[in-house]
Amino acid sequence: MVLSCFNRTTFAAFRTPPPLDQRFRPEVVRERHVLLINPFYAKDVHASFGKHVLTPTLALTSIAAATPPDWTVECWDENLLQGPPPREPFPQVVGITVHLTFAQRAYELAAWYRRRGAKVVLGGLHVTSCPEEAAAHADAIAIGEGVGIWGRILTDAAAGRLRSRYEGSYRSCYRDEPPPRRDLLPRRSFLTTTSLIATRGCHNRCGFCYLSTRGLHMPYQMRDVAQVTAEFQADRQPYGVFTDNNLGSNPEYLRRLCRGLREVRKIWSAAVSVDVTDDPDLVREMALAGCTGVFVGFESLNDANIAAARKKSPASDDYARRVEILHRYGIQVNGSFVLGFDHDGPDVFARTVDWIESNKLECATFHILTPYPGTPLFAEMESEGRLLHKDWSRYDTAHVVFRPRRMSVETLEDGYAWCYRRLFSHQSIWQRRPADWRAVMPYLAMSYLYKRSNRLWYYLVRYRLTQLAWRGLVEITRLRHLAFRRRLDRNPSVNGWPVSVVPASV
Q1: In whole angstroms, how far apart are CA 253 and each of 221, 272, 329?
Q2: For the whole model, what pTM was predicted?
Q3: Domain boundaries, the chain
Q4: Structure-derived torsion over alpha carbons of residues 376, 99, 122, 90, reported in degrees to the nearest 10
Q5: Would you identify the CATH topology of the domain 187-490?
Q6: CATH level 3 topology of 2-167
Q7: Residue 2: pLDDT band by 50, 70, 90 thresholds?
């Protein structure tokens, strides 16, 4: 009975947003006070409930940094399970970031604050892709890059001349933007508050990716290496996460960045494309700079799917060799796989998981193919009459929202759930343990905390114990990696292979 109640509490907390008090009426609206909200979104019951508290979003802290000094600013993330957003002091302006999966919650929050006298500004990717829909729920919408226009929005709001629509440009100089206001974050609520971004954009324009959204023109830009390293140092955290779409888009920039990070003596992870392994010496530079893990969008083991998505990628039969290159330099791999492409049949699930296990990927993330509004994939699916509905809350890569070509909707949904059950099983976790015996215990501790602790995550998140739960593992990993870097720096070979000559077949 206790366990049943425990599970119900956990499930409800991560699936339903906190209620809003409809009886509340503010006594006074505080002028020049702005509240920035990251709305609640329902968590995937098949994946880890702790996934969303690994690092904070940069959306709110970047906007907070652009807030004029004569305004007070407050950030609130509903996903930290601290209840509904604050109401006292009642803000003059409320800024809400909107993603399609929590658009409905964002609109509920907007309506609640507007009825009580606040001016609501909506921004984010969903606003850029569906501006007419969002405009019906806001006093103003911000389309495109918001940092450069946020000061003007607040100036207009204070003067009582707020316009209904503001448009920012991603062509503005990215390196001129102020560093995010990480001081506004509850540090204990995240694995690390050091979310970093060094580049904007990506050399790929995959048809299913949000970067291909209609109206989103994001040229590739790079920040100065000194800026990035200074931010990393300033946050005083041992571990940082680069949230770039692809930190390896420009290999020479990544090399310069790694050389700048070598003196920081911290560890970090990033999303890269698998072609970063074209140059094994660059992977070595990453390891020497503190990289302990990468998120790699393999997407599919079927080359026909990769070609149809218009993604630039090496042949899938070369993926295993490239994973081995990363592993040789002590870099763990979290592989991302999309299920439900037109060339996928019912065999895709077992084939994908078998490959993950045989190549000992430390982690993997699965996504059901999802046509985001405004992308070429969405237009294609809509024109073919394959969309099942436009309930944005289910466009979360955990639900099937279109008719697959080579399997049923039920087969795709069941296969997706099976992939997570298999990957999170005791057998699979043990099978993918590292070859280095010294890394086995930290790997197992990380795997069980991340993959098999959903019953505990409510309490870890609710009582701000996330950083405490991860702290020991992070420090052990940092110290082990520093020792590995010293050996790597002294030795021109790794496991007997010259640094610049990694075998084509191992």
Answers
A1: 11, 13, 20
A2: 0.92
A3: 2-167, 187-490
A4: 180
A5: pyruvate-formate lyase- activating enzyme (3.80.30)
A6: Rossmann fold (3.40.50)
A7: very low
